[in-house]
Amino acid sequence: MIDLNTLSLADLKKLQKDVSKAIDSFQDRERKAAIAELEVVAKERGFTLAQLLDETSVKPRKPVEPKYANPANPSETWSGRGRKPRWVVAALDAGKSLDDLAI
Fold first, then answer.
1. Ramachandran region, residue 68 (left: φ > 0; alpha: ψ -120 to 50; beta: rest)
2. Which residues lie closer than 8 Å to 90 by C-beta, 6 or more apart?
3. Measured between alpha carbons, how far is 69 from 84 in angstroms, rounded to an integer?
4. CB 54 within 8 A of CB 39
5. What's the burial of 78, exposed, middle or buried (CB within 10 Å: 0-12/13-18/19+)?
6. What CA–CA distance (Å, rounded) separates 47 from 56?
7. DSSP 70
8. Crossing angle of helices 49-56 and 9-44, rounded to 10°
9. Which pLDDT score, from 0 to 100, does residue 58 have?
10. How far apart are CA 95 and CA 53, in angstroms?
């Protein structure tokens, strides 16, 4: 056991750096072992690991056509999904409806 109270600041910093490297190395070995185990299971079931991961990956959504446009600046549009743009909020606060902003 190392008595940390007897080490100099330089020795403590070196020890800290060595421990960080050892942790990173350990995690890398564990990750590689887990991948190897998953590849064996995938192969037993007739797949490659890449095939399984490709099917479960999130596919990007296709862009949605805009439904609303800012009357003051038609280049500002909104699809109606997600958070309302400031210009939509301002128009609604001014008494307009979404139908008034529809393209």
1. beta
2. none
3. 12
4. no
5. buried
6. 13
7. E
8. 100
9. 67
10. 49
Residue 86, pLDDT score:
96
Contacts by 74-79, CB closer than 8 A, 24 or more apart: 77/103
Look up residue 95 and give its two tokens.
Answer: 């008494």
Position 85: which residue type?
A: P
SS3 of residue 23 by DSSP: helix
User: Can you give the pLDDT of all 103 residues of the chain as single tens digits?
Assistant: 889 999 999 999 999 999 999 999 999 999 999 999 999 999 999 999 988 887 656 677 788 999 999 999 999 999 999 999 999 999 999 999 999 999 9
